[in-house]
Automatic annotation (TrEMBL):
This is LTA synthase family protein. InterPro entries: Alkaline_phosphatase_core_sf, LtaS-like, OpgB/LTA_synthase_biosynth, Sulfatase_N. Residues 266-532 form the Sulfatase N-terminal domain. GO terms for molecular function: metal ion binding. It comes from the Bacteria. Substrate binds at residue 428. The active site is at residue 313. Pfam families: Sulfatase (PF00884). It is a multi-pass membrane protein. It comes from Flaviaesturariibacter aridisoli. Mn(2+) binds at residues 273, 313, 482-483. It is found in: Cell membrane. CDD domains: LTA_synthase (cd16015).
Length: 606
């Protein structure tokens, strides 16, 4: 093997083993027992993030080695020793500090401590009670030991670089190896780049936390948490809070439907990918786009004027499951330490003895969904990896029909009440369907509506199959979109956020079609009330209440607020109104600005 290629591979492997050793140290110093299989899982699954971090650190070495064909000084060990020791100091500092951070805060070290460096006196006061001296000595010893070991190892590894090498053999192989580093760097060949979800594997939160690579987690936090202060200071904090509280206050009906006996209620939550309300009751070229849903909504409790909280799946999931508003430029589930503080339906059902399950035909690692779900009380996650290769008939994974059959099969064996969530897939770009299209045309609008029609058919037959089971009489099934969609275009951005909300089931206490404005956020409180869960969702209304008939949503650095007869959409960057109805008042815009400020401050405070 050419000397430079061997050097790069050994360097990459050394960092990987170093990070595995750091994980063992973390597990040892935390003193928490794990079953043998789970313990091994932290090393196995965590290795993926270790490989990624090792690839980042090895990239400059690869560049040095490539240049060494022309620059003789780059063949000497001193440069590699200096570079590595300069890296070891901050890396070891993160590793050592992380041990106590987890003991104190319950999560791995990220960018959170950086927020306190602007107030050094307060920062010191907050850690003065900790064994700082002991950890400081431990850090120095680790630096000395690791630095000495690295210097010796690199001296031996670099010795062959001094010898003549056939460049026409070594250079192409080294270029190939350098390019190949992108594979571990991004976590593999899958569609979704590496994130914390990629190494989460267990319902045990400590095991998932142990699987994280601390330097990787810290850098991710630094990059992700760009906003240290609220960028939407429209009002004094107290005024924004008062306006927001008035918006989220709800007054109960004089007579509310009684909750279903919570200990035996089954809940099926279907989250329809891109399930825009623009497709409901719509006929294109003589084809009814959602014939199944149109029939189902006449049989349940349907909200015809419902609005999504955001515009992406990673915003829609916490909106539905946690009643948490979407953010204008990010998603709370991309930051697991913040997401872990959210109330969730999964946690509520778990406390009542349920074993919440989540089904998705794609990769749950997408947008850090898996870490949010595992932290939300879900004990079973079924995703792309759980389906046979022959059933992964979509670019993203398994189509909705395959997943629906799997859910029905699994629920047929259920021996106790269940809480099951299904995130559909097939109406996601590129809008593939395993069946023949019902609309002619290859443009995006036709492809999208064909995919909606396919999922509608799957959903309709799924509900009809559920109705034939022995558990349907004690079940509530909720259909809600994760977000709307720009297609088909209407000329109004507001319409992109309209979604359907439908309650079905033998245990449903009321039926009818409602025209009042409601929000996707209201699912959480409503399901919790029906199931008798002791949960509070501050941003969510119970749909069986006298609501303020308003909804608030966010998009990329903008927001919209909708009432029964008026609406306004606002651009936070340009501070301009994008759209508004003739009846929109200045007070409506003020309320929207207050909600933007208040909800984002809540995110920052978590």
């Amino acid at each position: 093997m050419p000397a430079r290629l061997r050097f790069l591979l050994l360097y990459f492997l050394s960092w990987t083993l170093f990070f595995e050793a750091a994980r063992l140290l973390f597990l040892l110093l935390q003193g928490k027992a794990l079953p043998a299989g789970t313990f091994a899982g932290t090393l196995w699954y965590g290795a993926r993030m270790d490989l990624s971090m090792a690839a980042y650190l090895s990239l400059p070495i690869a560049v040095f080695l490539l240049l060494s064909f022309l620059v003789p000084i780059l063949r000497r060990p001193l440069l590699y020793q200096a570079y590595t020791i300069l890296l070891l100091v901050p890396v070891l500092l993160l590793i050592v500090c992380d041990v106590e951070v987890y003991k104190q805060w319950g999560f791995r070290l990220d960018a959170t401590p950086l927020k306190y460096l602007s107030s050094p006196a307060e920062a010191w006061a907050s850690i003065a009670h900790l064994p700082v001296v002991r950890y400081g000595l431990f850090f120095v010893l680790c630096c000395l030991a690791a630095g000495y070991g690295a210097a010796r190892l690199l001296r031996r590894m670099a010795a062959p670089l001094q010898l003549p090498e056939r460049w026409y053999l070594g250079l192409p192989l080294l270029l190939l190896a350098t390019g190949a580093l992108i594979i571990p760097l991004r976590g593999g060949l899958q569609q979704t780049p590496l994130n914390q979800s990629s190494v989460y594997f267990s319902p045990n939160n400590f095991a998932n936390q142990a699987a994280l690579n601390v330097p990787w987690n810290f850098l991710f936090g630094v990059i992700s948490e760009k906003a240290e202060t609220n960028p939407y200071p429209y009002f004094p904090a107290a005024e924004a809070r008062n306006l927001a509280n008035r918006f989220f206050a709800g007054e109960p009906f004089d007579v509310q439907p009684p909750p279903v006996p919570g200990d035996s209620l089954n809940v099926l939550l279907v989250i329809w990918e891109s399930g825009t309300a623009k497709a409901i009751d719509t006929t294109i070229e003589g084809v009814e786009i959602t014939p199944g849903f149109n029939r189902l909504k006449a049989e349940g409790w349907y909200f015809a004027n419902a609005w999504a909280s955001g515009d992406r799946t990673d915003k829609g999931l916490p909106a539905v499951l946690s009643g948490y508003p979407a953010l204008p430029q990010s998603s709370i589930i991309r930051l697991p330490n913040k997401a872990a503080r959210l109330p969730t339906l999964g946690k509520g059902f778990r406390q009542k003895g349920y074993e919440p399950a989540f089904y998705y035909g794609g990769e749950t690692e997408f947008a850090n969904i898996k870490s949010y779900l595992l932290g939300s009380g879900y004990t079973t996650l079924i995703d792309k990896s759980d389906f046979a290769a022959k059933d992964q008939n979509s670019k993203w994974g398994a189509h909705d029909g395959v997943v629906a059959d799997r859910i029905l099969h699994d629920l047929s064996a259920a021996r106790k009440p269940f809480f099951t969530t299904w995130l559909t897939l097939s109406s996601h770009e590129p809008f593939e369907t395993p069946t023949a299209p019902v609309l002619a045309g290859s443009d995006d609008t036709h492809l999208f509506l064909n995919s909606i029609h396919y999922t509608d058919s799957v959903l309709y037959h799924f509900v009809r199959a559920c109705e034939q089971t022995n558990w349907w009489h004690n079940t509530i099934l909720v259909v809600v979109a994760d977000h709307g969609h720009p297609l088909p275009a209407t000329g109004s951005r507001r319409d992109n956020f309209r979604i359907p909300i439908l309650f079905l089931g033998g245990a449903l206490p009321q039926k009818g079609i409602e025209q009042r404005v409601v929000s996707q956020l209201d699912i959480a409180s409503t399901v919790a009330s029906l199931a008798g869960l002791k949960l509070e969702f501050p941003f969510s209304h119970n749909l069986a209440s006298r609501l303020p008939h308003s909804a608030f949503f966010c998009f990329n650095n903008g927001f919209g607020i909708v009432q029964d007869t008026s609406y306004v959409l606002f651009d936070n960057v340009g501070r301009t109104v994008l759209e508004q109805s003739p009846g929109a008042t200045p007070q409506l815009l003020r309320t929207g600005q207050a909600l933007q400020q208040y909800t984002y401050q809540d995110f920052l405070d978590k």
